[in-house]
Write a structure and sequence with these properties.
single chain, mainly beta, four-stranded antiparallel sheet, 28 strands, globular
């Protein structure tokens, strides 16, 4: 073998050995110079879920209005189709403007094909049809999950359910060992495990559990009783972030690793983000932002007892689904970055 070939092979080995560091992207701190507008949606009940495929295709849902349970934003206006449907939509997720799912009461799954909503499944678990879907999340059109619970012997939603859609049909996933309503479910890319937040109701106090599902086994990794703070999870750039009271953590080597401590802030237990240096942080008095360096407020709430229930983030626009308990109004805080 010639010296030239040996030299080339040596360079190739060095390149491959260092390639992990070479291709690692450098994250830019998230911007904060949003121009905010606020839309009021006059709904009989608070709007709790939001999803969108683009800034011109955003959906939000509520329950109890029958003909005004679903609202759509086309880039200019929020409207509802006014069609009377016997459903109670609690969960929404989609993959394009022509492929959206809603999970409703009674174990029903509805699908939107770009023209209208159609009931496509009615699921049961162990003979129970009183299933309440609480939320949905999907990796792809062939990997979609709807989850929630049905009532236990005390009438509390504590019998966990997870339904899986493979692109053509739904089936119930084994949830033996789980107890409580499944409120969130995400896949964590770094360890290829699924993580779930469960809320267990009782007549004395409520609790939050966080479970890991890996190698066909559920493992409880965190538990807390509800007080002024609790626990939840969020998916940011395919990484599950754990909100553990006042700390934000990720999972490394089967341990929680703190990435952000919010002890000195009026943190309100919810985050959303594009990546690790572009995270929106809900406070009791407004919305703040973490850019990998520091935390600063984006805006303050004009009224007390205001919540942000959900968010949809695009490259240059964000939609924050907000509810003012003091006024009873459902609001959409719509932020745009200047070009």
């Amino acid at each position: 073998m010639s010296k030239r070939i040996i030299t080339l092979l040596s360079i190739l080995v060095l390149f491959l050995g260092c390639s992990e560091n070479i291709i690692e992207p450098v994250l830019e701190p998230g911007k904060r110079d949003y121009i905010w507008s606020v839309d009021t949606i006059f709904s009989f009940n608070p709007l709790y879920r939001i999803w969108g495929s683009s800034p011109n295709d955003v959906w939000t849902i509520t329950v109890g209005s029958w003909d005004e349970d679903v609202y759509h934003f086309d880039g200019r206006n929020w409207t509802t189709d006014g069609v009377f449907r016997i459903w109670s939509p609690h969960a929404i997720w989609g993959f394009s403007k022509n492929n959206i799912f809603i999970g409703s009461g009674g174990g029903k799954i509805w699908h939107y094909n770009g023209d209208d909503w159609q009931e496509t499944a009615k699921l049961t678990k162990d003979g129970h049809s009183d299933i309440a879907f609480n939320n949905m999340w999907g990796e792809s059109p062939n990997k979609l999950y709807a989850f929630g619970a049905y009532s236990d012997d005390d009438g509390l939603l504590n019998k966990s359910i997870i339904a899986y859609y493979n692109g053509s049909s739904w089936k119930m996933v084994n949830t033996d060992g789980l107890e409580g309503i499944v409120a969130s479910l995400f896949k964590n890319k770094p360890d290829n495990a699924y993580y779930m937040q469960l809320i267990k109701w009782s007549n004395t106090y409520d609790s939050t559990y966080i479970y890991q599902y890996k190698n066909e086994k559920y493992s409880m990794i965190y538990k807390t009783i509800w007080s002024n703070t609790w626990a939840s999870i969020s998916l940011i750039n395919n990484v599950v972030y754990f909100i553990l009271k006042k700390e934000i953590s990720i999972r490394e080597n089967n341990q929680f690793e703190t990435v952000l401590n919010l002890e000195n802030y009026d943190f309100y237990q919810r985050i959303w983000g594009r990546h690790s240096e572009d995270i929106f942080v809900l406070m009791t008095d407004g919305l703040a932002h973490y850019n990998g360096i520091d935390i600063d407020y984006l805006f303050y709430f004009p009224n007390p007892r205001t919540q942000i229930w959900g968010a949809v983030l695009f490259k240059n626009e964000v939609f924050m689904l907000t509810y003012e308990a003091s006024t009873g109004l459902s609001l959409i805080y719509h932020g745009k970055l200047p070009n």
